[in-house]
Amino acid sequence: MIKNNKKTLIFIDFNGNIESVFNENLEVKTCNFKSLDDLKKTDEVLEIIYKPFVNSDVLDKLFELKLLGINTIEYFDFFEQYQGKINIDIISKEWFLKSKEFKLLHSNFSKYFKRSFDFITSISLLILLLPIFLLTYLCIKLETPRQFFSSPAFFKQKRIGLLGKEFTIIKFRSMKIHDPKIYSKYSSKDDKRITKVGKIIRKLRIDELPQLFNVIKGDMSLIGPRPEWNELGKEYEQLLNLYTLRYAMKPGITGLAQVMYSYGANLDDAKRKLEYDIYYIEYFSFLLDLIIIFKTIKIVVFGRGV
Known about the structure:
With 306 residues, this protein is of the alpha/beta class. 40% of the residues lie in helices and 14% in strands. The protein has 11 helices and 8 strands. The strands form 3 sheets. The protein has a 4-stranded mixed beta sheet. It has a two-stranded antiparallel sheet with strand order 5-6. Strand 3 (45-50), helix 1 (56-67) and strand 4 (71-74) form a beta-alpha-beta unit. The longest helix is centred in the middle third of the chain and has 21 residues, at 108-128. The chain is elongated.
């Protein structure tokens, strides 16, 4: 009999009971199996996803099934492999210590190469994009002509950077002058504080361009986790598991979380983005950086910014 090459994913609990069954597109599938023993009798291509710390009887059964050619994968590895992010609900400091990845953290060559690329590219972009800088500056100023000399064209704010050290980020101002203590700490697509010019430069990500100065200075990288506002960052440190792990790298103008997830507007969004940030830090590579650069260009070209 010819096997169906479409993979069936079998999720089991700590005791070896089948919890759920999905196809390879992670769509729920009707379960025809009552126990692990039933898996020996099928011609389907199977993959068993098991949780860590299963009991010895379950390990024996998984061992036997793998000898029969059925693939097995731990839940941690499955989540990372299929979704390209880390499930922060099930990781710990012990997981971090045991991980064989996070190679950038102890590779001086990679750090030097990344820093050199950041510096050279930022200088080049500043020269190339100078006309856009000047035009954006004038447009922001002319939006309030009576306050042309007094209203700021740039927005500055304390952010958290490498190893938790604070720095001042600089962006083009896209909002009206307001008291941050009165308004929400989060901004949204239809935020009334956003100016007319602000809507355009946010959509095209032009408001982010002054951060090139932060990159040249060494506070930021072109690619990395988003630099969080210090007030929000301190809150997240208390509320989100291993949030401080994202401080292991310099924050970036763009990053995996920025291109894979929508603009953060609440704690749950911050959690989802953290999963991508930790994945990026764990599996950093220059190829991954290249993919993020192309995705960023695509977002800018098609105006998917907020």
